[in-house]
Design a protein that fits this description.
7-stranded mixed sheet, about 375 residues
């Protein structure tokens, strides 16, 4: 089957771990870049990545790259694509434009040029044109324009035209109707788990679980549940060459590969009864209520289950919730609980506040830069002896 070039968009700082995931899923020629990973594969791989990948936001299929200095070159380059292969006049479409060049520095104008070139071609060849739907189009078209690499005289302004195979971002798994304050994106939660040394054979604990994203993502990984199974539809299901039989078989196989039980407990706890109720609703939505232990308890009441395990938590940073001064006590208590009760365990804490991190009072064995949205954070690893 013919191979295509794909690009998976990911959160900044997660490119390397996303590249590892894509290689494990069968991608070839995997190349991490800035906020994304380029790779090659066939059409079944595209479906497979959308179904199984836990870290990317969306997967783009590149259909053309061409020199693009200004609006005229952009229009001409778009017109040279045979859009009848991807879009019929009966289908709706929308254009997402990103990046800029000196001549194309407004994404709305760039998107408008692309739209005009496509509908002009349809009118000329078919006598009718597609309508625009910016909410739920049949086809999402992504155009990235770039000035080239700084300092490289051979690098010229260019445009990459892609079809968005995903649609709504993959971080919206579809299982989370209830969200607490400042919840982690599911894709970031999955990435944090991948950055720890947790395996399903070891207990997993989030003592500040909020609406439960970390323990739920851990349970999905432990039970080998494909995250894409919770979505109603992917964008590629509306493509003209969509292979419905192949897609149905892939989903059947994914369901057959799920495990019936977890080999070790996965626990989430929180002092706030309301957010813990959100976690229970979310666990129920994805059929995990029987596999997870979700407990209302304060940090001071948390106890280990077993001699070894992994703690992973995302305490508030002070940017959005409360004041930094009031959070110092929480971070100090977190460090005390780690030291006093969890000898033999490994703890990981994600925080975007360096002053609060120091309040934990432990020396981290490793620091990994991770972005939670626009916030530059550190994932700190603590070996507890």
């Amino acid at each position: 089957m013919e191979s295509s070039v794909y690009f998976a968009t990911v959160a900044r700082g997660l490119e390397a771990v996303a590249a590892q995931e894509l290689q494990a899923l069968g991608a070839s020629e995997v190349e991490p870049g800035f906020t994304g990973v380029q790779f090659r594969g066939d059409r079944p791989l595209l479906y497979h990545v959308n179904l199984w990948a836990r870290l990317p936001f969306r997967v783009l299929e590149q259909i053309r790259q061409f020199p693009c200095r200004d609006a005229d070159q952009l229009y001409q380059g778009i017109q040279e694509i045979d859009w009848a292969a991807y879009l019929s006049p009966e289908q709706t479409f929308a254009v997402r434009a990103t990046g800029k060049t000196p001549q194309l520095n407004h994404t709305h104008f760039t998107a408008l040029q692309v739209k005009n070139a496509i509908v002009d071609q349809q009118r000329q060849r078919l006598g009718q044109r597609s309508s625009i739907d910016t909410h739920q189009p049949d086809v999402w078209i992504n155009v990235f324009v770039s000035s080239g690499e700084p300092g490289n005289p051979r690098s010229r302004p260019s445009a990459i035209v892609s079809l968005d195979s995903t649609g709504e971002s993959l971080h919206r798994r579809g299982y989370r109707p209830a969200m607490g304050v400042a919840p982690l994106k599911e894709t970031l939660a999955a990435a944090l788990i991948a950055l720890t040394d947790w395996t399903p054979e070891r207990p997993f604990l989030d003592p500040l679980c909020g609406s439960g994203t970390l323990p739920i993502e851990a349970a999905m990984k432990g039970l080998n549940i494909a995250p894409g199974l919770f979505r109603e539809q992917f964008a590629f299901e509306r493509w003209r060459d969509f292979d419905g039989a192949l897609w149905s078989e892939m989903k059947r196989e994914a369901i057959a590969q799920q495990h019936s039980h977890l080999p070790a407990p996965i626990i989430g706890s929180d002092a706030d009864a309301a957010v813990l109720q959100d976690a229970q609703v979310n666990a129920r939505e994805c059929g995990l209520e029987a596999h997870l232990k979700l407990v209302q308890q304060s940090l001071s009441e948390v106890e280990p289950v077993g001699d070894r395990g992994v703690i992973l938590c995302n305490p508030p940073y002070g940017e959005r919730i409360g004041e930094v001064k009031s959070l110092g006590a929480l971070y100090r208590e977190l460090g005390d609980v780690f030291k006093q009760r969890f000898k033999g365990w490994t703890a990981y804490v994600l925080s975007g506040n360096q002053a609060l991190i120091k309040q934990i009072g432990l020396k981290p064995a490793r620091r990994t830069v991770v972005y939670n949205g626009a916030i530059e954070c550190r994932l700190l690893k603590y070996e507890l002896y």
